Structure prediction request, 155 residues.
Amino acid sequence: MAEVKTVAELQAMVGQEIGVSDWVEVPQEMINAFAECTGDKQWIHVDVEKAEIGPYGTTIAHGFLTLSMIPVFGASMTVMPAGITMAINYGLDKVRFISPVKVGSKVRAKMELMGITPKGDRLIMKVKYTAEIEGEAKPAFVAEMLVLFFIAPKE
Prediction:
């Protein structure tokens, strides 16, 4: 469970790691389901036989599939703002897909607090996600995500 922090406490934590998720395996079934949902059925993702002779020797996950795992990773954040009633995705400032995620690989994310900005009865938290691939030197992606928190009115 995440520790609840005030805005001032969170601002003092900018630049610090605020969580590391568990490892999540990326099986072919997950890749195929994502391909069906998005219509991105490029052979490097879904054609196992063709991918064996391709550049990676196997199928790879879509970059956007690994990026869409941010909510799973984010559940491991160790801190949260006090008084929140709801959180929604507000956007991404920067995303870079660095290394492919081969089928059967495990990924996890390290999260770093980059900023916390009050906006009236709302709060924007900027978190840098670095998605690691088990056994690989380079991450799958690095993304700077914005989360919009709604704060309960003070009584």
Observations:
- The first helix runs from residue 7 to 12.
- The longest strand covers residues 84-97.
- The helical segments are 7-12, 28-38, 43-46, 48-52, 63-67, 70-74.
- DSSP finds six helices and eight strands in the chain.
